């Protein structure tokens, strides 16, 4: 593949100028360069007060001296001093040229990069529990994880998606006990998970009253771990029934995994964990159980094996760390899991230090912690069985959209398909638009608002770009575009947004925060709407039309790619 032209990096150009003026070399100036909140204050700004201490001068003096020394050129037009900042104005024609040339060359790969080359990223996401409902918390990890997966991949990382299915643990001892007792009373053909849940709720109630039954449940899990054929058979049945349900959701969402190794996969890999921990003197006996004491780190204790020899959720995670480190030699292993499990991850990452894996991998263990999803009815608990089903939620969204289409545009082709893209896209977007650590409230009025900061709004703007392009015979080539005709405020805002696409993707992987991309796509859509309102695109003046159509097509490419990276599909009509 040919190298192609390089898109100008204005931040880098500016930081080099500052470094030269300050006579600094290889400095980290670039990290300090900001984008001013208001474009009248320049395109980039350098806060000078950081230097005041080192240079022992007032920011004002430094800024003025620096300004004199900055050499302007064809890329940087103007520098100004404003309250402790040095503001840089870039040459907008150069900006336009560099952005549009890059888009012409890369097309739908615009924004991709090779910064990830040679690096392996594991993304663990979704990980629902067998025989339990897939709830809206699981929806959130699925959607966040899939977006991160796509974005890392687009930036050249070798990316591996893992689903750490919750298919093991004492709860299966309970499920087996319940199934044994009452299995024949339930019909598993209709809604298997719901029926299994009824058994689970029922056996839990019994366990609370009767310690004996609880012990039987614990025994069952031990038997399962020891390979007992009856228990294994029932457990397999639970797993198949559940996966069938989960796959329906993954199909609707269009989400895939490279590996579906659940917790059970690690059942034969846990002895080694105990051995290594013992060897390294961190495992202690306590009432027949083995534990790692993390009190000195303020992290409580972590049980590695229970008094009856059974392993725990934490042990399986430790075995998974060891296995993944050896098998994939990862640079990062991201766990997209709810913030309720913060303590769990701090514990296992701390214990991992004693597992003899290398430093790079220890540092690469990252809990991508996300906030709870709240419905108006408050927090959900599986145990009480009060849970919104994700399948129902997605279908309801599709139906609501279909109803809106029936009202507003009954003639539309492929209504069902389009409603699915919009309805599912709306739910996905809603899961990604807030900073992921924040709790998220689910409200249909917000999710499906076509004018709000929503998935449907972005889709709507995209469809508008498409219908504009349908009005012209063909999209002009870049050589027929006069950049001078795109120098008005609204065109430039679109162009500068397009320019930022790659940096937005870099920020997403730096912070593991897909909401940055979600918000960006709203900005881009809004800037396009303004551009569209202010400028007549289909125009008597062919030169003007060519330039505006070209910009419209470019926006379409980035909106489509950006939403695709979030896991959202674009409708053809709206
Ligand atoms: N199955 C767990 C749950 O639904 C999440 C698993 C998270 N991943 C992990 N490696 N512990 O809460």
Question: Largest beta sheet, briefly?
Answer: 4 strands, parallel
| Average pLDDT figure | 92
Output the number of helix runs: 21
Structural class per helix/strand content? Answer: alpha/beta
Description:
The relative contact order is 0.10. A hairpin with a 2-residue loop joins strand 2 (76-82) and strand 3 (85-90). Helix content is 54%, strand content 10%. It has helices at residues 10-22, 29-32, 49-55, 59-69, 92-106, 136-154, 170-182, 192-209, 211-225, 229-253, 270-279, 313-328, 342-352, 359-364, 390-408, 415-432, 444-447, 455-470, 489-511, 515-534, 542-566; strands spanning 44-47, 76-82, 85-90, 120-124, 158-162, 283-286, 289-293, 301-305, 332-338, 365-370, 373-374, 440-441. The longest helix is centred in the middle third of the chain and has 25 residues, at 229-253. With 574 residues, the chain is α/β, with parallel strands linked by helices. Helix 7 crosses helix 8 (192-209), helix 15 crosses helix 16 (415-432) and helix 20 (515-534) runs antiparallel to helix 21. Strands 5-4-9-10 form a 4-stranded parallel sheet, sandwiched between helices. Bound molecules: arginine. Residues 124, 127-129, 164, 166, 317, 335, 337 line the site of arginine.
